[in-house]
Amino acid sequence: MSKKHKGDETSNINDDKKDIEVSNQSSGSAPSVASSEASRESENQIDSGEDHLFHPSLISPLDNDRIRINSGFTRDSERIKRDKHDFEYDAVVIGAGPAGEAAAMKLAKSGKKVVVVDPRNQVGGNSAHVGTIPSKALRQSVFNLINYRRDPLFSQGLDYYQVPLNKVLTNARKVIRTQVDTHTRFYERNQIELRHGWASFEDKHTLHIELGDGTGYETITFNKAIITVGSRPYRPDLLDFDHPRVFDSDKILQMDYVVKKIIIYGAGVIGCEYASIFTGLGYKVDLINNHDGLLSYLDKEISDALAHDFRQFGVLVRHNEEIEKLETHDDYVVLHLKSGKRIKSDAILWCNGRSGNTESLNLEAVGLKANNRGQLKVDDTYRTEVDNIYAAGDVIGWPSLASAAYDQGRCAAAFMVGDKDAEPVSSVPTGIYTIPEISSIGKTEQELTDEKVPYEVGQAFFKHLARAQIIGERSGVLKILFHRETLEILGIHCYGNHASEIIHIGQAVMKLHGTLEYFVNTTFNYPTMAEAYRVAALNGLNRVF
């Protein structure tokens, strides 16, 4: 049972808003005979058409009158207690990021008594505070600066090359605050309890919480749990991340000095996104890639386009390289590679892998074990090897995207409450926020070739679209891969700004099993970027014979 309930006052307020019974208005006393006669006299005046004054009742939110109704459901916790169990909560959600929020909302709307535990004193998780939201807001600010530089109306007198990254993050901080406020209201509206502290298991029905305000701890009991603790950047021991010139993708948001050159180690999604951001700020960038190509899982034409634009922007990409050691000095760092190369720069940003935040959960107490990347194994219902404990989001690995994490959390909760229509997340669009953006869904050309599928390609280059010319887009392409006999859409790949938005049109058509003919026979607004679908479809049909 709970040793300390920090949220009791909040809980009482919420209960007061929702509780059962209809109360009498005003003082509740019966009307007097005199007032009844006055009322009848007033009615007679109305009937006779005599002049009268009507004074409506005045309602004040400051008085004690309240209107209450009976709740429409019985919480599972009450049923559990009738079954001689004594769990305080139907479910506990560990982590308040996208997966945790979605799971908590689904459970609450299913009539469950839910508590969410997160070490931050604000909701949103790493996604809102150090991941998706700040990095994309930062990217947008840099993108705006690039456009100003290109536009002769604004470029005169514009000097942003000596602006510290921390200054560019001003807009990102505003977005974070707005996101936190918005999502906090979601929890309040759904009457979901929040605990700010570090959670660890005592057994499969008991959770220990070290309160974040330093006031002690509490122990709560639960029927089921969902682990949605997310991930953090992987930090190898050979780097000193306490040094002011050594960063990971979380710490980089605190950089408050100007650099002329930066090394980015790791050319995955995060590394490529930050390469775009830094080169957009005018920094020289050395991008160290452990593989022989950029983002090799993408369609080759798309990854080639990214590599081409990186070269155009001045990013120096070094393929098939591996770190040997790093020298750190007060005013510079030197990266030693196993190939014998040495690279000197003002700072280094490590973007090579992420780890699940599971080490503090005391998983051994419930019989769980994370892999060497801190991730948990789940089945198709997001259940772990322990029957009452589920997991979702980055902590289970693929695809490690905020968008997918939200859906995984919702689906895990749906399976937990027994929804018949619940199904695991399978088809997820790729969204990479480089400059320009990359987004795709479905098969690549290489995959279709290996599978010997008779496919054809339809292309639309952004430089030919009126809307792209109006907004000054110089590069970009939309590719539609389709079966040359049935015209079934097999894959869609987009490179260019707004790609992460454009992809959803194709995703919807694929989901509904539409064919290439949909794009040919549908009228698109003109001029729009979406018109690229019609252009690409006609281009593809011209190749069919």
UniProtKB/TrEMBL annotation:
Keywords assigned by UniProt, alphabetized: Cytoplasm, FAD, Flavoprotein, NAD, NADP, Nucleotide-binding, Oxidoreductase
Binding site for NAD(+): 266-273, 353
Any one GO cellular component localisation term in the record: cytosol
Enzyme Commission number(s): 1.6.1.1
One Gene Ontology term from the biological process aspect of the record: 2-oxoglutarate metabolic process
Keyword Transmembrane helix: no
GO-annotated molecular function: dihydrolipoyl dehydrogenase (NADH) activity; flavin adenine dinucleotide binding; NAD(P)+ transhydrogenase (Si-specific) activity
Cofactor note: Binds 1 FAD per subunit.
Region annotation Disordered: where it falls in the sequence: 1-58
Coiled-coil intervals, chain numbering: none
Location within or outside the cell: Cytoplasm
Main location: cytoplasm
A Pfam short name: Pyr_redox_dim
Biological function: Conversion of NADPH, generated by peripheral catabolic pathways, to NADH, which can enter the respiratory chain for energy generation.
Alphabetical list of PANTHER family matching this protein: DISULFIDE OXIDOREDUCTASE, SOLUBLE PYRIDINE NUCLEOTIDE TRANSHYDROGENASE
Family assignment from sequence similarity: Belongs to the class-I pyridine nucleotide-disulfide oxidoreductase family.
Protein name listed in UniProt: Soluble pyridine nucleotide transhydrogenase
Organism: Psychrobacter piechaudii
